[in-house]
Specification:
This protein has 501 residues and is of the alpha/beta class. It has 16 helices and 22 strands. The protein is 38% helix and 20% strand. A hairpin with a 6-residue loop joins strand 3 and strand 4. The protein is globular and about 75 Å long.
Length: 501
């Protein structure tokens, strides 16, 4: 692991101006009704960046009222799909015009690497908007073949007012993963970004309004999950909630939805994803894939491959090469292009990760690399690798959401399948092998919503994403995501003396 750099200072980094800190309701930035604010911090130093309006139930009520008015009486659901597409394309163009500023703001708030945020997060946002803009005028139902003298057809209708609750690890990607398909169908919405990373969502609300998206269609309420998030989940006038976050909070949202108006719920939750590496794998390539699959975005990824299963024939070689490659892994300022890993998002996450690392040490796993804080300031943690990990260890069972890798040894394919599936989660998995039969067996046997073969974390807007088991239900991305924001309505009428049936 190389020495931390002071890249931001060396590269003449200029902190971006924070322009928007109020709630965005019905086309305007406003203070919260209570007047309360909360602090968002720079994870590089722990220092306060700015105070942001703290919305709660009263503010959610206002935002929902605006979204309901826009849905029931406004232009957006009544526009042609091509007109919605034109405005969404303009929205994408504006995001692209402000890409550099938005990327810096995201990195400042979340500790993400600047160069990757530009080419991954912001690029994904723009492509997602354009993808669903392209789908907006292609939404249609079907003509039904009725068994009697009846004519039947289906209509695809927007589900209504949607509550989007988005996480802090990919604020930009998740904003557009949820907002773009809902916009394409004609829905209106209330968005609650994570309290750790509220800044870019407010900027996107501004750009959406500038693009011509009508008032009330997109509303953004910054605040805490226990207040603003809970108000969205339990609101009687919200028709659907789409949530990405922890399994524990996902349970609370489903409970709130059931106790209120039985609103539809889509959940993308936690994961403890296995990456299974067989003896025939190219070891150097496997090490690179495993490293990036675990430590990308400082391990703050629900799809992170935090359980690395390595077949016994190459296990020792894999561990040796992994230890060597981690020596060149650079931790430091996320604005420095030479850095591989920035700080964790906040102090709470930082402390949680360090506690899991101590669990791993106490439970008898072998500490190969890392294992402690990296800097006296900020929320930096050394990339940590444990070997000789057992399935019943806490570090092998719980989602840590940080730069911690567990390496486990296996003998047979059957053993690998059984152990990979021995988890309450089912979000993602990976397989590395040259044997097509092994690929076919593993991809059909592992209970996960997305499986990569000889690669990892290759995402695309056209690829449906969502988990099995306690990783949630419902899909983001692809046309599956478009359909979840729509109702299917059947229409049947008599048809007499038809010349054909």
């Amino acid at each position: 692991m190389e020495k931390e750099s002071n890249g931001a200072a060396e590269n003449g980094f200029k902190r971006p101006e924070i322009k928007f800190t109020q709630l965005f309701i019905n086309g305007s930035f406003v203070d919260s009704i209570s007047g309360k604010k909360f602090e968002t911090r720079d994870p590089r130093t722990g220092e306060v960046l700015v105070s942001v309006a703290e919305g709660d139930k009263a503010d959610v009520d206002l935002a929902v009222s605006a979204a309901r008015q826009a849905f029931d009486h406004g232009k957006w659901p009544r526009m042609s799909g091509s007109d919605r597409a034109r405005i969404m394309m303009r929205f994408a163009d504006l995001v692209e015009e402000h890409l550099d500023e938005l990327a810096k703001l995201e990195c400042l708030d979340a500790g993400k690497l600047l160069f990757l945020t530009k080419i991954i997060d912001l690029d994904s946002a723009i492509r997602t908007l354009r993808y669903y803009a392209g789908a907006a005028d292609k939404i249609h139902g079907e003509t039904l073949k009725m068994s009697s003298e009846m004519h039947g057809y289906t209509l695809k209708e927007p589900i209504g007012v949607v509550g989007h609750i988005i996480p802090w690890n990919f604020p930009t990607i998740m904003f557009f993963t949820k907002v773009a398909p809902a916009l394409a169908t004609g829905c209106t919405m209330v968005v609650k970004p994570a309290e750790q990373t509220p800044l870019t969502a407010l900027y996107y609300a501004y750009l959406a309004h500038k693009a011509g998206i009508p008032e009330g269609v997109i509303n953004v309420i910054t605040g805490f999950g226990t207040t603003a998030g809970a108000a969205i989940a339990s609101h009687m006038d919200i028709d659907m909630v789409s949530f990405t976050g922890s399994t524990a909070v996902g349970r609370l949202i489903m409970e709130a939805a059931a106790k209120s108006n039985l609103k539809s719920v889509s959940l993308e939750l936690g994961g403890k994803s296995p990456l299974i590496i067989f003896d025939d794998a190219d070891v150097d390539k496997a090490v690179d894939i495993a490293r990036d699959a675990t430590f990308f975005n400082k391990g703050e990824a629900c799809i992170a491959a935090s359980r690395i299963f390595v077949q016994e024939g190459i296990y020792d070689q894999f561990v040796e090469k992994l230890a060597e490659t981690m020596k060149s892994w650079v931790v430091g300022d996320p604005f420095d292009p030479r850095v591989h890993q920035g700080p964790q998002v906040d102090e709470a996450q930082y402390e949680k990760i360090l506690q899991y690392i101590e669990h791993g040490k106490r439970e008898g796993a072998t500490l190969l690399t890392g294992g402690k804080p990296y800097s006296k300031t900020g929320y930096y943690i050394e990339p940590t690798v444990f070997t000789d990990v057992k399935d019943d260890m806490l570090i092998a069972k719980d989602e840590i959401f940080g730069p911690v890798m567990s390496v486990l040894k296996f003998k047979t394919m059957e053993e690998a399948i059984e152990r990979a599936n021995d988890t309450k989660y089912g979000l993602a998995a990976g397989v590395i092998t040259k044997d097509l039969n092994t690929v076919n067996r593993l991809t059909r046997s592992i209970r996960a919503g997305l499986i990569w073969v000889n690669c990892y974390m290759q995402m695309d807007v056209d690829c449906p994403f969502g988990g099995f088991k306690m990783s949630g239900h419902g899909k983001d991305s692809g046309l599956d995501a478009l359909h979840k924001y729509m109702h299917v309505k059947s229409v049947v009428m008599p048809i007499y003396n038809s010349p054909w049936s």
